[in-house]
């Protein structure tokens, strides 16, 4: 598991494009509209949306899935716990509970951080940012995926 | 001079906009127009404005700031009125509707949650649970040139993968929805299988975050949860 709770503050500060990307659809596609007003051109942005609509049920997807299945080493799944061991070591020290709290506090308090935020691009799935309100926590218990 | 519109707030909002940077290069100064009981935050609209990164972020930044001081209806990016007078007149026409919506959204913010799962992990589960997929997979390995076999395997794997993702998505929704006032799902894109916005009351923010964390914990290592928020309630206006 990786959890990233990020305030949108980084968006307003020019932080990672990962952040902006995650909220872009909301800013461009939601929000209140008044019919009598015009909207600026979103040429270029709409291309993103079309790309995103790539259909799952396509020949390309099937071939890709088949190749992925062929490549899969079914035994490889069992390696996961050993990979986890490293993480457990690191996480036990800081304490899983403490980390979860970081995430909670982050969401609850992020309003006040609007000024200080700032994530780096590409961080979102890997590591926690330096910001107090944002935290990324790795799974610490060796719970199995079958759970 | 065309008017760029950021958001609408009630009369109880302090609407302090001095020093805030609007869209455009250089950043346009913000103004507040009064339309009946409502305040409309606007700036001059720069010529040739497009959805450039800095402008989108300026729009978002202005709303973030306003939201920190009271409820605001966030406009969609890029809304341009012919001039101030018409802005005021258009907002006035729907004054009651906007006032009601502001009251509904008071104290609430949007959280967007995107969930993805490692594809190998998903396919591994499919192969472990579906004997026919395993059989086809072994055959396809023996006959790497057999395209029809590959298609058959791929189609089955894709269907089975999608069914599992839908189940996962439903379970995650069940866990997160109780802490939210409203929800709005969007098509999952870019490797995610769930993309949903939650309207959450500030008093429930901690409970919501806890629910997200609990789900992420339950789902395990192969899943990634990306939560953005608190955001202006773009999806709920």
TrEMBL record, chain A:
It is found in: Gas vesicle shell. GO terms for molecular function: structural molecule activity. Residues 129-139 have a biased composition (Low complexity). One of its GO terms (cellular component) is vesicle membrane. Its main location: other. Keywords: Gas vesicle. Residues 112-147 are annotated as: Disordered. InterPro entries: Gas-vesicle_GvpA-like, Gas_vesicle_GvpA, GvpA, GvpA-like_CS. Residues 116-128 have a biased composition (Basic and acidic residues). It comes from the Bacteria. Gas vesicles are hollow, gas filled proteinaceous nanostructures found in some microorganisms. During planktonic growth they allow positioning of the organism at a favorable depth for light or nutrient acquisition. GvpA forms the protein shell. The gas vesicle shell is 2 nm thick and consists of a single layer of this protein. It forms helical ribs nearly perpendicular to the long axis of the vesicle. Belongs to the gas vesicle GvpA family. NCBIfam families: PRK09368.1 (NF006872). This is Gas vesicle protein A. It comes from Actinacidiphila guanduensis. The lineage of its organism: Bacteria, Bacillati, Actinomycetota, Actinomycetes, Kitasatosporales.
UniProtKB/TrEMBL annotation, chain B:
It is found in: Gas vesicle. One of its GO terms (biological process) is gas vesicle organization. GO terms for cellular component: gas vesicle. It holds the Pfam family GvpL_GvpF. Its main location: other. Keywords: Gas vesicle. PANTHER family: PROTEIN GVPL 2. Belongs to the gas vesicle GvpF/GvpL family. This is Gas vesicle synthesis protein GvpL/GvpF. The lineage of its organism: Bacteria, Bacillati, Actinomycetota, Actinomycetes, Kitasatosporales.
């Amino acid at each position: 598991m990786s959890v990233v709770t990020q305030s949108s503050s980084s968006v307003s500060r020019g932080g990672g494009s990962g952040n902006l990307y995650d909220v872009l659809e909301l800013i461009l596609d939601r929000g209140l509209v008044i019919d009598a007003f015009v909207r600026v051109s979103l040429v270029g942005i709409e291309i993103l949306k079309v790309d995103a609509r790539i259909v799952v049920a396509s020949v390309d997807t099937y071939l890709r899935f088949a190749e992925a299945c062929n490549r899969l080493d079914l035994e490889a799944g069992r390696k996961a716990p050993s990979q986890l061991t490293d993480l457990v070591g690191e996480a036990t020290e800081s304490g899983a509970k403490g980390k979860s709290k970081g995430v909670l506090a982050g969401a609850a308090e992020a309003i006040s951080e609007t000024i200080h935020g700032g994530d780096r691009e590409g961080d979102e799935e890997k590591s926690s940012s330096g910001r107090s309100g944002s935290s990324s926590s790795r799974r610490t218990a060796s719970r199995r995926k079958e759970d | 001079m065309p008017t760029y519109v950021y958001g609408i707030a009630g009369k109880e909002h302090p609407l302090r906009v001095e020093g805030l940077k609007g869209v455009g290069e250089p950043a346009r100064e913000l103004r507040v127009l009064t339309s009946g009981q409502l305040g409309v935050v606007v700036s001059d609209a720069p010529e040739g404005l497009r959805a450039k990164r800095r402008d989108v972020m300026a729009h978002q930044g202005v709303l973030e700031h306003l939201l920190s001081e009271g409820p605001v209806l966030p406009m969609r990016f890029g809304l341009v009125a012919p001039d101030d007078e018409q802005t005021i007149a258009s907002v006035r026409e729907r004054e009651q509707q906007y006032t009601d919506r502001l009251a509904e959204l008071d104290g609430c913010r949007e959280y967007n949650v995107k969930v993805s799962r490692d594809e190998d992990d998903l396919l591994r589960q499919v192969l472990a649970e579906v004997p026919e997929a395993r059989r086809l997979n072994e055959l396809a390995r023996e006959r790497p040139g057999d395209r029809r076999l590959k298609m058959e395997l791929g189609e089955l794997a894709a269907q089975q993968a999608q069914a599992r993702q839908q189940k996962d998505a439903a379970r995650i929704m069940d866990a997160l929805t109780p802490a939210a006032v409203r929800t709005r799902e969007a098509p999952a894109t870019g490797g995610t299988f769930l993309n949903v916005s939650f309207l959450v009351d500030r008093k429930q923010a901690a409970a919501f975050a806890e629910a997200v964390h609990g789900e992420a914990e339950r789902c395990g290592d192969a899943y990634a949860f990306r939560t953005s928020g608190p955001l202006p309630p773009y999806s709920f206006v």
